Write the structure tokens for this entry.
Amino acid sequence: MGTGGGCVAVKFLDAQELRALYGQSGAAQLRLNQPLQHRQSGDVLSSAVGDGLDYWDSRPYQTGDDPRHMDWRLSARTGEPYQKRFLAERRPSIVVAVDRGRSMRFGTQVRIKAAQAHRVAALLAMAAVEQGWVVDHYHFDQGIEAAPRVDDRLGLTAHLAQLVIAPTLEQPSDLAHTLHHLASRIRPGTPLYVVSDFFALNTRAEARLAAIAAHCTVIAVRLFDPAELTLPQVAEIELNDGIAARAIETLPHDRARYAKAATSRMAQIEQTLTRAGCQVIAISTIDAALSAVPLPHGWGQ
């Protein structure tokens, strides 16, 4: 099954599937070495100074300051009025980057990889909003585009409506460029989900991932189709990218050689992601349940 670049009208998700994903969003178990869990909003410290409970420092009093936050001890010691400053609390958030590159339009049985990527993104958004988290969503191919921030159920509804629509999937992915863009936008400690087949993973992308993983939890959701690992037991197969079709004859030794090379390539991708410090979750295009994906949990409970 292939989807061409012009098939924008095709729907990736329907109402029944969204209901099923919503059920999964509340039932999934955490499988993180560093769990995505914050028990209350104060567990997450912001780099901004504002209203909060955690003392940061004191500064000279300014007209209009709240007298409730006077630093009376420092004021008495110096003879000058001083005001306490606190670290502002912020809601925990996740960043989700979804691959919309050309290789993501491949699929042979149930759905293409891009459709499965949208299912993962929908599941993450549902779980995050349900727990009071904020979602920053990006999709990328040669470039990267940000979706509106999702921080409540109204925003979630609009976000899901966009995930239902199939993208064009015409350009190859530039994963390294995407990660370079995200690196300056992710707060330390924020979980980053990269949903991709990682066919665009190279040494530059690995270095970018390692740099982000040094201060964030990075979950690499690696998507694959079973036909990418082994060719069907037929004498001839037809490859169709939605634009052109090509028939290729396959012999038993061809299938064995292909399976060996494909298995080696997938293993190399996983080893590279692991070496970069990512937690790797492999999801097939035929998987209906996405329980292997670790979800945001705990802040809203």
Observations:
- The domain at 15-39+91-284 is CATH 3.40.50.410 (Rossmann fold).
- The mean pLDDT is 82.
- The helical segments are 15-27, 72-78, 113-130, 153-164, 175-183, 203-213, 252-275.
- The two ends are 42 Å apart (CA to CA).
